[in-house]
Design goal:
Alpha-Beta Plaits; 15 helices; single chain; four-stranded antiparallel sheet; Gyrase A, domain 2; Multidrug efflux transporter AcrB transmembrane fold; alpha+beta
Length: about 600
């Protein structure tokens, strides 16, 4: 008689070492990555590690005495929260206090200076035409300059400023002047620029013959201020052009691709930050441009952007430049070659992912409905949080000890499967949390610790479901190996349904909450996913291997699978009942 075909269960039963090898390789790789990154411990939240607390006070915009209201404050909080939290698990807290204040709590380990900049310099975002620019405090040298281009779909290319260290794009052309005048000053003034190879970049807006004397005086004054401007001084970097009106030309500072400070004369704002509907960092594979920033404008913003790009596109390089200015600082100054009328644009220039995301953040959330000033900045100690963490770890250790004792008492030898599985789950959880610190700014706070403690019960529950299904098979009279393979499909279904419900609850909690509660939800969801991984790749294969050992297969009383102790039935025996009377024997029914 032909041997029966072996299906998936038979294959899995005969090769349990494969999933064990796979999870071992994963642990080694993740652990190696953790040590390679230098982040060998999880980042701690502000309640555990301390940090910085910033109090911001809202101020009415000029001419808007009623701007401070609940709607605008809530909008400001949402903008700041999305900017500083990124994926929402960095544990930086942004919340209102009273009617005029916003509190920002930044945990230690986060770049507090950058976070302060994110929440403190988001009030004013403008697109301004560049009138003149040169390296501040040094002679400008000939450098390659990215040529702006656009397509019918609306693309503009340029190199990032201020927050970037990108180099010029491959399509750049050299210019001896570096940066030059690109537009006229307001009130009828027109620029004039001269450049010769190897000379210092210079630009001198000259008043139009038809311009008024007041406009000429204003242009001359601005040019004198520009000549004296030194953007290498920190005090100048933070104040140049910060309080300028949108309707007037101004001075500004920003960094170029070489990390040098550049000074600018900028024209009146052509597009406001509120005219940007959406901006995001995108990896462009179609044109090999790498990371780019795409912008989508509102209906009103589309017309404004089309007008300014149409004007700039008529000028020769480098006179087709516009600056994206955030609170007086130039963060990007792309070039344009044709009018962008479709309401969409793309900025490229050898961005890294971090640079592209930073610029996209500024464009998306750069215009707050209110202006804010720092009222106070205080340092938060972690003394209380350290005590709470210590108490939480003790509670977790007690809970884990109780689970281990329960497994030893009720499942005896099966603890050889359960305890290593708990250990593997703990290792994976710790390593992944440590890696997520630098990757997505995940910070471990007290609620997150609670989520990890709750996960102990979830993981133990999965083992218990599997063990009980095996015991049910033994009670029915099966030997251990068939009982394990029969129990697995039923246990697997129950475990998946249970973990799915837990993960769904964690996902909903993560989406609808903010701050510390998100830490709890994130940790709960992470450990739930790891529970499935551990059960499938470690617990089940290990149980299959141990079922072949005499200690378990013979039903030793300390194995946890003793048929007598479980009240098993007599072994199942298959008998074939004759279909009719056999020759020479009477029919049993007639006996």
């Amino acid at each position: 008689m032909a041997a029966p075909k072996r299906g998936r269960s038979g294959s899995a039963q005969s090769k349990p070492w494969r999933p064990l090898a796979l999870i071992l390789i994963a642990i080694v790789a993740l652990t190696g990555g953790m040590f390679a990154s230098g982040q060998t411990t999880p980042r701690l939240g502000i309640d555990l590690a301390g940090g910085t607390s910033i109090t911001l006070q809202a101020e009415n915009e000029p001419g808007q005495p009623n701007a401070i209201n609940k709607t605008n404050m809530d909008t400001a909080v949402a903008i700041m929260n999305r900017r500083v939290n990124g994926l929402g698990v960095s544990e930086t807290e942004v919340q209102t206090q009273g009617t005029k204040n916003i509190i920002v709590n930044i945990p230690r380990g986060t770049n507090s200076a950058e976070a302060r900049k994110q929440v403190g310099t988001t009030a004013k975002l403008y697109f301004r035409p560049v009138l003149a620019t040169e390296v501040s405090g040094a002679a400008a040298t000939a450098t390659p300059k990215p040529s702006a281009s656009s397509s019918p779909s609306g693309k503009a290319t340029g190199k990032p400023k201020a927050t970037s260290s990108s180099s010029a794009s491959p399509s750049a052309t050299a210019t001896s002047q570096g940066r030059a005048v690109t537009d006229a000053l307001k009130a009828g003034s027109t620029p004039s620029a001269t450049a010769s190879s190897g000379t210092k970049a210079s630009s001198s807006p000259s008043p139009s013959a038809s311009g008024s004397s007041a406009a000429s005086d204003g242009a001359a004054k601005l040019q004198a201020q520009y000549a004296a401007l030194d953007c290498t001084k920190k005090s100048v970097q933070t104040t140049a052009g910060k309080d300028a009106k949108a309707s007037e030309p101004t001075l500004a500072c920003g960094k170029n691709s070489s990390g040098q400070w550049q000074k600018y004369i900028l024209g009146p704002a052509a597009v406001d930050g509120t005219d940007v509907k959406k901006a995001q960092a995108v990896f462009n594979t179609q044109t090999a441009a790498g990371w780019t920033v795409t912008m989508e404008f509102t209906g009103k913003g589309t017309k404004k952007f089309a007008d300014i790009t149409g004007q700039l596109a008529q000028k020769q390089s480098p006179q087709n430049q516009f600056a994206i200015v955030l609170d007086g600082e130039v963060v990007s100054d792309p070039y344009v070659k044709q009018a962008l009328t479709g309401g969409n644009a793309e900025i490229s220039g050898n961005f890294t992912q971090e640079e592209a995301q930073s610029l996209a953040n500024m464009l998306s959330y750069g215009a707050l409905p209110l202006s804010f000033k720092e009222q106070s900045v205080t340092t938060v100690t972690a003394a209380l949080g350290g005590e709470q963490l210590h108490a939480g770890l003790i509670a977790g250790a007690i809970g884990l000890a109780l689970v281990v004792i329960y497994l030893l008492v009720f499942y005896r030898g099966l603890s050889i499967v359960a305890i290593p599985s708990l250990l593997v789950s703990a290792i994976l959880t710790y390593v992944i949390m440590a890696l997520l610190g630098p990757a997505i700014h995940f910070a471990l706070n007290l609620p997150a610790v609670c989520g990890a403690i709750v996960a102990i019960g979830i993981t133990a529950d999965s083992f218990i479901v599997f063990f009980e299904r095996i015991r049910d098979g033994i009670r029915e009279g099966r030997s251990l190996r068939p009982a394990v393979e029969r129990a697995w499909p039923r246990a697997r279904r129950t475990i998946l349904v249970s973990d799915f419900v837990s993960f769904l609850a964690a996902a909903v909690l993560f989406i609808v909450t903010v701050g510390k509660v998100q830490g709890f939800a994130f940790t709960l969801g992470l450990t739930t996913v790891l529970d499935v991984v551990v059960v499938f790749l470690f617990t089940k294969p290990l149980m299959t291997i141990l079922a072949r050992r005499k200690f378990f297969a013979s039903g030793h009383k300390w194995s946890g699978l003793d048929p007598k102790g479980l009240g098993a039935k007599a072994p199942l025996r298959r008998t074939r009942r004759p279909s009719g009377p056999v020759a020479g024997h009477a029919d049993p029914k007639e006996a």
